UniProtKB/TrEMBL annotation:
Originating species: Namhaeicola litoreus
Alphabetized UniProt keyword annotations: Hydrolase, Protease, Thiol protease
PROSITE patterns xrefs: NLPC_P60 (PS51935)
SUPFAM superfamilies in alphabetical order: Cysteine proteinases (SSF54001), Prokaryotic SH3-related domain (SSF82057)
Name of the protein in its database record: NlpC/P60 family protein
Amino acid sequence: MNYGICLLNAIPLRIEPNHRSEMISQVLFGELFKILEKSDGWVRIILDEDNYEGWVSHHQIKLLSETEYIAASKEVNRYCHELVSHVQINEDFIPISLGAKILSNERSNIIFGKTLNFECDTIEGCQSKQEIVKTAYYYLNSPHLWGGKTPFGIDAPGFTQMVYRINGYPLLREAYQQASQGEVLSFIEESEPGDLAFFDDEEGNIIHTGIILRNHNIIHCWGEVRIDKIDHSGIFNVRLNKHTHNLRVIKQIFK
C-alpha cells in the first residue's frame, strides 16, 4: 500500500484521471490518504477522513512511507481556525485556509525532517453546538463551487462537513450520506442551533443540507453560503418570496 499527504491549500479530487474531469471534492492541506491506483501522472486515492475516492495529479501530492504515514495518522486532529493563514515548511511558505489540518512539530519532524511553523489560531477536539454555529459564520458569503471545501468555494455538503469536522465531528462527504448519520428529530421545534437539516427533490433523493440557526433560520450554501428562513415545508427565500428547498429530515449528530 502506498500513502500520501496534501501540502497545498486545496487540490481538486476528480472523477477521472484528467484535468478536464469533474471535480467531485477537494483534498485540503494536511489530509492523509491511501493510494489505490496509478495512471499516467495521476493517482486514485481514498481519503482517511471520509473514505471518499477520486483522482489527483501526482504533481500536487507528497508521497509518504508507511512509517511517515503511521506517524502522521497518530496526530490529534487540529485545524486552522482562521479564514486565511500560512505555514512554513523548510524555506517554503504555503498559504492555507480555514479547515487546513495542522501537524505538530513532533510529527512534522518525522515527515519533513524540520519543524512546521504556522501562524494561525487552531482548534481541536469535540466542541459545542455553539462553536459549530460560530464556525459556520466564517463561511458566510463564500461562493458555491461544486466539490469545494474552502471559504473560497464550497458546496452544500462540503460546508456542513467542514464546519462539523473543524469542531471534532466527522461527517461523510455527500448530503445523502450525512443524512444517514445522527438521530432523527421529529419536529423543527425539537432542533437546536447547530443541528442539520436535509432536503430532497421530487424523486425523494436527498440533495441539499444546511445548519439550523436560532429564530427559524438556516445557514446553507445555495449560490453562496447564506442565511434563509426554515419552516416545516423547507427553506423560504425572502428575496424570492418562495420556498426553494423541500424539507426531508432534521438530524441531531450529537446532543
